[in-house]
Specification:
The complex is a heterodimer of chains A (about 240) and B (about 250). Chain A is of the alpha+beta class and about 240 residues long. Chain A is about 50% helix and about 10% strand. A 4-stranded antiparallel sheet of chain A has the order 1-2-3-4. In chain A, a hairpin with a 2-residue loop joins strand 5 (about 50-55) and strand 6 (about 55-60). In chain A, helix 4 packs antiparallel against helix 7 and helix 7 (about 185-215) packs across helix 8. Chain A is globular and about 60 Å long. Chain B is of the alpha+beta class. Chain B has helices spanning about 5-20, 30-50, 80-90, 110-115, 145-150, 180-185, 240-245; strands at about 95-100, 105-110, 120-125, 135-140, 160-165, 175-180, 190-195, 195-200, 210, 225-230. In chain B, strand 5 (about 160-165) and strand 6 (about 175-180) form a beta hairpin. The relative contact order of chain B is 0.16. Classes of the chains: A alpha+beta (about 240), B alpha+beta (about 250). Chains A and B meet through helix 1, helix 5 and helix 7 of A and helix 1, helix 2 and strand 4 of B.
Chain lengths: ~240, ~250
């Protein structure tokens, strides 16, 4: 595996990388690994950068084997699952987008309302968010401004860019749609975009999960599946 | 909120369908099941991509100034054994490329005979499955041209490339294969030249496959025999290539 990110056409040993993880380091200290970000080099021993023997071949992984899929670290199988799940993702997106448009979900819940765009409302929203304050009453039934902007960014910007940057790396899809290569400015740029958005989506997922817990798991998960949302009684807060 | 009923109905139907489908997989072992599922995904990718392309869909070719100063090597960089060493020492004078199997006229061509055939030069990007890329210039003979010269039988479906490097503990020689669409693709060549010089030993001398619609590992090195076949089942473990036999995708257009 090649745990390094580049910009442009070319990316291999000897080409300056934006970010890289290299196990090994100095030859006399084979167990130390390093993380390079731009011109800075950090010691990442034990956190990032591991060297394994997989299928009789030496493999460098950024992450420990327990965090990669499949757990055996076999790249061929990993690629197989990745591309299969890409189809699952595409079918999901298609269904989601069709329903989102048909039911007016995007129009009603993703586009910020005029009331939400008032400066005072924006400030209150941000302040509530920072304090992890739970929405109360009727306002809990609809998405607040930050939710609308975040969901819009994820659904209409990050996920489409993720699909397109992935396709840019495919040898044959790159031939089918050569415009993608120019759009991203090279295969290595597309690969870097793909990686950065992946990290972004993982962070979005984790923060989102945390917020579901803050807002009350039962009601939130129930509403995601059934569409029914119960507004808790306000007695306690008075 | 409108539509919760239809959503609930959808989820009920979906989970019931999933429950009904599951027992069908139970007879297979876990490894077989995942292999089967993954082959299915590979098939979808291949079919969808073929729908979107014609014989003239070409991989990007680059201007000469984009050629990488350094081109990494992977896999075998020097086949073991005296036979290959002798070939290198005699500059492949006695080497021949055989084209056989389901063909009308089997061929055995020397390196200079390959050089005399009309050639194709392409500057393309090699994309390794590990993530690195490098741009190189490849000169060689289109595989389609060789196949036309040999003449295919009507039962021909696949073209198998046998290599001179032995891989794995059983000492079997490395092999790779393409279907006829890929074999006749204009950018599928047997390259004898790289960056304006003879193909170096570490890059697969005397000839290597360049299948530009595919990812790096599909471009087999040290090719010395092309076999036209009707099925891939009798080669190796039956998955179509040495890489596929060890869990990689046979269709490597991703």
């Amino acid at each position: 595996m090649h745990p390094a990110l580049y910009l442009g056409d070319d990316g291999h040993k000897g080409v300056p990388s934006l970010l890289s993880v290299s196990p090994g380091g100095a030859p006399n200290r084979p167990l130390r690994s390093t993380l390079q970000i731009g011109r800075h080099v950090f010691d990442s021993t034990g956190i990032l950068g591991f060297r394994y023997t997989i299928d009789g071949e030496q493999a460098d992984l950024a992450l420990p084997l327990g965090l990669v899929f499949p757990p055996s670290g076999e790249l061929g199988l990993a690629r197989g699952w990745h591309f299969l799940m890409a189809w699952v993702l595409l079918v999901n997106i298609a269904i989601y987008v069709i329903f989102g448009i048909a039911t007016g979900h995007f129009r009603r819940n993703f586009v910020p309302t005029m009331a939400q765009l008032r400066p005072s409302a924006i400030l209150r929203d941000l302040w509530d968010h920072v304090r992890l304050k739970r929405p109360r009453g009727v306002s809990a039934r609809s998405y607040n401004l930050l939710q609308r902007l975040t969901y819009g960014l994820v659904v209409f910007v990050l996920v489409p860019l993720q699909v397109l940057s992935g396709l840019t790396m495919s040898s044959s899809f790159g031939a089918i749609a050569p415009q993608l290569y120019d759009f991203f400015g090279g295969r290595q740029s597309a690969r870097t975009v793909h990686f950065v958005i992946m990290v972004g989506l993982v962070v979005f997922f984790l923060v989102h999960m945390m917020q579901v817990f803050v807002a009350g798991v039962r009601n939130e998960v129930g509403s995601m599946i059934t569409g029914r949302f119960t507004v808790p009684s306000e007695e306690n807060s008075k | 909120m409108n539509g919760p009923v239809s959503r609930r109905q959808f989820l009920t139907t979906a989970s019931l369908t999933a429950t009904l489908l599951l027992p069908g997989c139970k007879k297979l072992s876990e490894a077989d099941t995942s292999r089967l599922i993954l082959r299915g995904g590979e098939g979808i990718s291949m079919r969808v991509q073929r729908l979107l392309m014609t014989e003239r869909t070409l991989a990007r070719e680059f201007p000469r100034q984009k050629i990488s100063a350094f081109f990494p090597t992977t896999g075998t960089t020097l086949p073991t054994g005296d036979a290959y060493k002798r070939l290198v020492d005699t500059r492949f004078k006695d080497w021949k490329l055989k084209v056989e199997g389901l063909v009308q006229r089997p061929l055995a061509l020397t390196l200079s005979e390959l050089h005399d055939l009309p050639g194709r030069t392409q500057i393309t990007q090699h994309q390794c499955d590990e993530g690195w890329t490098a741009i190189g210039e490849w000169t060689g003979v289109q595989v389609g041209q060789l196949l036309q010269k040999a003449g295919l039988h009507s039962s021909a479906r696949y073209v198998v490339f046998h290599c001179m490097d032995a891989t794995g503990s059983d000492g079997e020689s490395y092999y790779e294969s393409l279907d006829l669409f890929d074999a006749f693709h204009p950018q599928t060549i047997l390259a004898y030249g790289m960056n304006g010089r003879d193909l170096p030993v570490e890059h697969g001398a005397p000839v290597r496959l360049r299948a530009e619609l595919h990812i790096g590992y599909k471009n087999a090195k040290y090719v010395d025999r092309i076999e036209v076949a009707d099925s891939l089942r009798r080669f190796g473990k039956g998955y179509g290539s040495s890489a596929a036999d060890t869990g990689y995708q046979w269709f490597a257009g991703m």
